[in-house]
């Protein structure tokens, strides 16, 4: 059950979020679902101020649903086990080395073979298994793609979204990034579906009611239209790179649209930054060890992540505008300078990586890495070193620096139509 209201704020390194009254199982825990639910509640309550709040807003809605689905119960049990061992500092190579992993896989396979494939509970189980693997598992090249393809398939094929179901809404929103990435590489544009646009609007409006999100203001709804533009523009740039002389009209239209969005996004970033400084949500502190000479400090991990994502939108837009200049045969010096300035501002978050828990740091690393394309050798060495320091325990990043750089630049190119 969810209680909506003003968000609670915590200490400087903590998070804030809407208040949840979790479905707490009865004191006499007689079933496996009740015991698993109680363990999840306990872990969430003890860790809800850190990085686990990022992309996991569905977790508080899970306990009430465990009795409905064996695969959701078993995947939750696995997730709780891995999370608990992770908190205790056990070697990451062993966190999923448990019979619970095989049991969770068998439960999901059983659900896939029956009529439960497109239920909310099965989707929740799939997402928890993906989170357990990407956060706590022994990653191998390409292994995450299988999880993402399966989640994408269920999200696209399941019945229409039920906006009265808090779990379904949270699961869909927290995994919309998978659909966005797929839309960039050839799948149908999910934003063109009215159901997804309605979902993003609903969640964005709910989020803006939280005190910590106030600096972003009403302009936050604009980012929904921007997501659609980023997908369309990536395809336009890909088309123009393949046939640069094919359509002058397309180049002009794309350039005009992207420049308008870039100008608006720049204004939004400036306004949000000013509000955040005034409210104390964000501070820019001199730091002689930082490659930029400054570091950002944020009151919550959620605000830091949303703010960094906003800067990332501006970086992508600037890079797209620059690419169109290059396609047109121009040097694009001013456009590249704007792109690099955005990356430099984002690098103020690099010192942040050592000041938050590992999970929060890994989320921020995911935002920062594509900006390495703009870095010189000294900047690149500093940023990569700091990323590896933050990843020392979790070992989520490729151990080989060249592989990490190649993947980072590949991601940057995929977002801007350059593959």
Automatic annotation (TrEMBL):
Protein name: Uncharacterized protein
Organism of derivation: Clonostachys solani
């Amino acid at each position: 059950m969810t209680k909506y209201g003003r968000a609670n704020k915590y200490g400087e390194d903590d998070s804030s979020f809407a208040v949840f009254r979790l479905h707490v199982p009865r004191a006499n825990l007689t079933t496996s679902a009740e015991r698993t639910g109680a363990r999840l509640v306990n872990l969430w309550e003890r860790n809800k101020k850190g990085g686990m709040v990022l992309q996991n807003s569905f977790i508080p809605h899970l306990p009430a649903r465990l009795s409905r689905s064996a695969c959701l119960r078993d995947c939750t049990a696995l997730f709780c086990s891995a999370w608990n061992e992770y908190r205790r500092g056990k070697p990451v190579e062993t966190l999923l080395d448990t019979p619970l992993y095989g049991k969770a896989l068998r439960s999901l396979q059983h659900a896939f073979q029956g009529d439960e494939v497109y239920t909310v509970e099965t989707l929740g189980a799939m997402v928890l298994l993906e989170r357990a693997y990407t956060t706590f598992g022994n990653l191998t090249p390409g292994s995450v793609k299988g999880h993402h393809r399966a989640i994408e398939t269920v999200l696209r094929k399941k019945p229409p979204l039920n906006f009265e179901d808090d779990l379904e809404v949270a699961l869909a929103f927290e995994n919309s990034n998978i659909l966005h990435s797929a839309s960039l590489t050839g799948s149908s544009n999910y934003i063109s579906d009215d159901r997804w646009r309605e979902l993003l609007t609903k969640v964005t409006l709910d989020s803006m009611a939280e005190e910590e999100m106030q600096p972003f203001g009403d302009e936050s709804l604009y980012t929904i239209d921007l997501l659609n533009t980023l997908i369309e523009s990536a395809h336009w740039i890909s088309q123009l790179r393949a046939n640069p002389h094919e359509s002058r009209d397309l180049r002009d239209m794309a350039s005009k649209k992207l420049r308008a969005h870039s100008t608006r996004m720049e204004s939004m970033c400036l306004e949000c930054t000013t509000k955040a400084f005034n409210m104390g949500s964000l501070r820019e502190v001199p730091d002689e060890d930082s490659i930029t000479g400054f570091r950002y400090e944020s009151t919550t991990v959620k605000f830091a992540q949303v703010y960094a994502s906003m800067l990332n939108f501006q970086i992508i837009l600037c890079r797209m505008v620059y690419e169109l200049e290059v396609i047109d045969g121009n040097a694009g010096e001013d456009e590249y300078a704007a792109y690099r300035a955005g990356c430099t501002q984002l690098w103020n978050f690099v010192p942040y990586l050592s000041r938050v828990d590992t999970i929060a740091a890994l989320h921020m690393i995911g935002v920062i890495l594509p900006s390495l394309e703009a870095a010189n050798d000294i900047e690149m060495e500093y940023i990569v070193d700091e990323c590896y320091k933050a990843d020392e325990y979790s070992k989520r990043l490729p151990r080989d620096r060249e592989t990490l750089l190649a993947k980072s630049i590949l991601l940057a190119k995929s977002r801007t139509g350059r593959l």
